[in-house]
Amino acid sequence: MIQDFISDIISYSFLRNAILAAVLVSALTGIFSSVVVLRKIEFIGDGAAHATFGGIAFGLLLGTNYILMAAITAVIFAVAVSYFTRKNKLSESSVIGMLLPLSMSLGVIALSFIRGYTPDVMGLFFGNILMVTSEDVWMLLVANVIAWVFFAVFYRELLYYSYDEGMAKHYGVPIGFIHYAVLIGISLSVVGSVKIAGIILVTAFLVIPAVTSKTIARSFRGMILISLGMAVVASVMGIFVSYVLDMPPGPVIVVMLFMEFLITFSLKALFRVRF
Asked: What is the mean pLDDT of residues 203-211?
C-alpha cells in the first residue's frame, strides 16, 4: 500500500505537486499559526478565507489570475477589519460580520455572470487536489522563504507582539508595521491553502496546529516548531489516507489535525509532557 503510494507520487505529477504543496502550506500556515492563536485573531483568518471567494469569482469572471485576485481580496479584507477595529473602536466580530457576507455575496453575483464554463465551486469550498500545479508549488516555496526570513529578522518583535502589545510598545517594537505585516502574511497563507483545504476548512491550518502545540510548548520558538511539524505530518498522513480510501484530502487533513490535538491533549493529561 505504501509502496503503491510512493510509486504513484513518482509517476503522477498531480500527486507529487499535491504532496509538495501540502508540506509547503503546512510550513507557511504553521509559522503564522502561533501568532494567530496567541493574538486571538482566529476570526480574521477565517474571514480572510471566506473573503477569497469574492476575489476568485471576479478573477474567473474577468479571465485574470484568480489566485492573484484572491490574494488581493484577502489582504484588503484583513487590513480593512484591522483598520475599522483599531481606528474606529468597532468590535472585530461586527466588522467581520459585515464584510464577510459582502464578499461572499459579490462572489455569487460575479459567478452568475459567467457564461459557458461553470467553476468547480465545491472544489473552491472544500479543496481539490487536482487544482494544484507546479506554478502553485513554486509560489508557495517563495512565500515560505519570505515568511521565514521575516520571522528570522523580526523574531524578537513578533515574540513581544504575540504575547503583549503593551509590552511590545514599551520595548520600541514598531507595532503598526508588525501588525499589518502579520495580517498580510496570514492572508497570503490562507490563499495558498485554498486549493488544498478549500475556503471553508482553511482556518483549521491556521488554528489547530498552534492550539495543539500551545498545550505542550514551553516557549514561542517551541510553539512555532511544534505547530509546523504537526501540520506537515497531518498533511502527509491526510493525503495518504485520502489516497487509500478515495476520500477528499482537505477534510481528511483537517480530521488528522484534530486527531493530533486529541492525542497531544490526552498525553499531556496522562504524562504532563512539555517541550
From this structure: 88
